[in-house]
Amino acid sequence: xxxxxxxxxxxxxxxxxxxxxxxxxxxxxxxxxxxxxxxxxxxxxxxxxxxxxxxxxxxxxxxxxxxxxxxxxxxxxxxxxxxxxxxxxxxxxxxxxxxxxxxxxxxxxxxxxxxxxxxxxxxxxxxxxxxxxxxxxxxxxxxxxxxxxxxxxxxxxxxxxxxxxxxxxxxxxxxxxxxxxxxxxxxxxxxxxxxxxxxxxxxxxxxxxxxxxxxxxxxxxxxxxxxxxxxxxxxxxxxxxx
Length: 242
Description:
Layout lengths: L2 E4 L8 H11 L3 E3 L10 H9 L13 E4 L2 E4 L1 H12 L6 H22 L15 H29 L14 H16 L1 H7 L4 H12 L1 H7 L22
Parallel strand pairs: 1-2
Antiparallel strand pairs: 1-3, 3-4
């Protein structure tokens, strides 16, 4: 049976980290909310499952993945579950834990990236918090972005199996997540990234290698890849890109 992915149909968001892994692995899946309502999809299908009173472990918010009767929520948790099943996780427990640890750090990063345009809260429009966004974005780009990317660069440098991958000697879901971080930041903050990338050449090379992986390259060139836009995590507001 195909996996069922539930996420908002018009943004990449946190769901894209799951999509990238599924696409890279060539796994069969249905992006449920992107189906028409006539075909049993759309946002109503997402809401029905999320609010299903029969679920013993209901998800708080998308993304969530359905595999048979099992429903799994939280991006890092989904990837920890999927990784071994689709060939994108190490075989050894220590490697799987290390991959999960790195993916949890990705979760921290995307929270901070999101808060560059919504530092006071998601319930407010960006236009209602522009002064706070500017201050937050300046701190993020000057201090936090180099710290995060520098750490990921050191992980590549210290990988005993070589610097081709983040974990071990084969690709994992952490590598596809690194691709998405670089791609998203290039979209949202092209000026800041142009200043930062020279200090993290291995990470940029990893992004480029992941983008060339055959299945992922096909996905990125297809209509299945939702374009970056100003409704997701990575948003381009030029005034924030100091």
